[in-house]
Amino acid sequence: MKSRQFLLAKRPIGTPTAENWDYVETELPSLAENQVKVKVLYISLDPAMRGWMNEGKSYIPPVGIGEVMRAGGVGEVLESTDPNFKPGDYVYGGFGVCDYAVLPTQGIHKVDPNLAPLERYLGVLGMPGMTAYFGILDTGQPKEGETVVVSGAAGAVGTVVGQIAKIKGCRVVGIAGGEDKCRYLVEELGFDAAIDYKNSDVKKGLKEHCPDGVDVFFDNVGGDILDDVLTRINMKARIVVCGAISQYNNTTPVKGPSNYLSLLVNRARMEGIVVFDNVANYPKAAAEMAGWIAQGKLVAKEHIVEGLETFPDTLMMLFRGENFGKLVIKVDH
Amino acid sequence: MKSRQFLLAKRPIGTPTAENWDYVETELPSLAENQVKVKVLYISLDPAMRGWMNEGKSYIPPVGIGEVMRAGGVGEVLESTDPNFKPGDYVYGGFGVCDYAVLPTQGIHKVDPNLAPLERYLGVLGMPGMTAYFGILDTGQPKEGETVVVSGAAGAVGTVVGQIAKIKGCRVVGIAGGEDKCRYLVEELGFDAAIDYKNSDVKKGLKEHCPDGVDVFFDNVGGDILDDVLTRINMKARIVVCGAISQYNNTTPVKGPSNYLSLLVNRARMEGIVVFDNVANYPKAAAEMAGWIAQGKLVAKEHIVEGLETFPDTLMMLFRGENFGKLVIKVDH
């Protein structure tokens, strides 16, 4: 059986282009012990993928040249040599950017299509949801009545962060690109306000919408927005460094936060998070979030693009700020 | 009675020069209730003074134009209308850059010249000592066997930070400017190693002297050194932001740390401190440090320059990295 796969052909300098990828058809191997063959149904597209394309030490090893691009996905088991999985099971795993995969079952777990649409296991009920949950609660530590600001607010992580902060009784202000996204955050997700960084002045927006300053900032974007928020933080503020999508395609050094001495003046904290540290507590978090979804307090939003071959361009939607909610590819077969 | 005083004449742009100061002689007022007249003996020179010269919100209000420059000092009470103070008492207070001062007794406390030389109450037993104590212990949280790096290591705060980290059983590496300072840190203060940032490559030095990475970084300087250390931090590292003396005289925006995403990769924390938050615990800290001094575990080092009129240039020694230990002016009378 053949699999269509996107391989990393070349490490990008700056913004990835078509030449960074090889789109190939490869004959799949037969199954060794404790392996499954999976028909990949949905592929998760995440800002972190840009980092995995770079050489060098990070929180996980880079994708090797000539390897299938790493990606989370949801699929259906076609064959199995592991007694815990049988054909017809729906599973989450790191299948990569491809339409069929053969791989060890370690790290793969079953998902239930009756509890939620399959793509949701890549969003609220997957890594982005976990990132949001542990990042805002454990590191952000929002208290009732505090003001929480989130950047990349209309993205997979940001939408969940803001809604959890609302559940915790905070004033929530989102920063997102475009009127549609901003309207959605306020009208559909219950954010108290949203600042359109593409069409308005972020500093002015923060002044207007955070009259009592900022207690928690959950940052997905870095760059100028991080600097703007640093001018408005309160004493003992917590800044959760989840990502810096504005900087990932830089060919110059990352723009460090010029206003970081605001941390000193305000006895504030900036702390980095990586979701994998919380693996042991995923089930607890998933259960709590499922409860919030059932109660209508947590709304899921996915952005589905059809066709595996769209991958190189669909990935770029993240960096152009074009996705609206969790970005996934629905694989054609 | 007249007092010689340095007034802030003009806010500096970049490096302060002679024209930022008015050196005047002023007739002192007679004492109102609960005031003292003090003969100022030693004046504390601190990097933070540069910040107080700027306009705008910070952790304390700026010095006003035409006001005596703010400074801590130690002096002798000449007259008092407060029953708690009598002529001949030695006191610590915010007397400003002058040789005599009349001021309310609020915030003034007695010091004992028999326990320690008077200038020491501006160093180890004063604000720099308190800054070091609470910054390294409460925010840095060094654990036995961890590696602690301190920048501005030969300064008033850095010398104390490093010695406390040694007392706590850490490997301690100082970053300082010049061979003399580096030799002193290792040979006299017991640092495990010192990196001479003026004559050697800091990144290379960190690699050599921190073979197990950096668990705690106590930063007094910011700029390139902060970025260099960020490349070497360990998982869950703590960066204590105490100051950024390399940036205080900038006429361009502060250089933010380009490598701040190392916080994310390493789930590390960067946190600002201001010593005044610990006022209630100063006595406990002073007692513990006095004990360490008595046991020979904590060595004090002051750099004394004579003459009030040297103030404008003596202050600049801090920014040129010329002071060796706590910088004080011994006032001539």
Major sheet details of chain A: 7 strands, mixed
Counting copies of identical and different chains, the oligomeric state is homodimer
Strand content of chain A: 25-35%
Low-confidence stretches of chain A: none
Order of SSEs of chain A: EEEHEEEEHEHEHEHEHEHEHEHE
- The first-to-last residue Cα distance of chain A is 13 Å
Query: In total, how many beta strands of chain A?
Result: 15
Radius of gyration of CA atoms of chain A, rounded to a whole number: 20 Å
Report the helical percentage of chain A: 10-25%
What is the CATH superfamily of the largest domain in chain A? Medium-chain alcohol dehydrogenases, catalytic domain
Q: In the CATH hierarchy, what is the class of the largest domain in chain A?
A: Alpha Beta
Question: With helices defined by DSSP (H or I, 4 residues minimum), what is the helix count of chain A?
Answer: 9
CATH architecture of the largest domain in chain A: Alpha-Beta Complex
Q: How many domains of chain A, as an integer? A: 2
What would you call the structural class of chain A?
Answer: alpha/beta
Largest interface: A-B, 33 and 33 residues
Indicate the mean pLDDT of chain A: 95
Explain how this protein is built:
The structure is a homodimer of 333-residue chains. With 333 residues, chain A is an alpha/beta fold. Chain A folds into two domains: 2-123 and 301-330, Medium-chain alcohol dehydrogenases, catalytic domain (Quinone Oxidoreductase, Chain A, domain 1, Alpha-Beta Complex), CATH 3.90.180; 127-276, 3-Layer(aba) Sandwich (Rossmann fold), CATH 3.40.50.720. In chain A, 25% of the residues lie in helices and 26% in strands. Chain A is built from nine helices and 15 strands. In chain A, the strands form three sheets. In chain A, strands 3, 4, 5, 6, 7, 14 and 15 form a seven-stranded mixed beta sheet that branches. In chain A, β9 (171-176), α4 (179-187) and β10 form a beta-alpha-beta unit. In chain A, α2 (127-140) packs across α3 (156-167) and α2 packs across α8. The longest helix of chain A is centred in the middle third of the chain and has 14 residues, at 127-140. Chain A is globular and about 60 Å long. The two termini of chain A are 13 Å apart. The model of chain A has no long low-confidence stretch (mean pLDDT 95). The A-B interface holds A 57-59, 222, 227, 241-244, 247, 253-274, 277 and B 57-59, 222, 227, 241-244, 247, 253-274, 277. β13 of chain A pairs antiparallel with β13 of chain B.
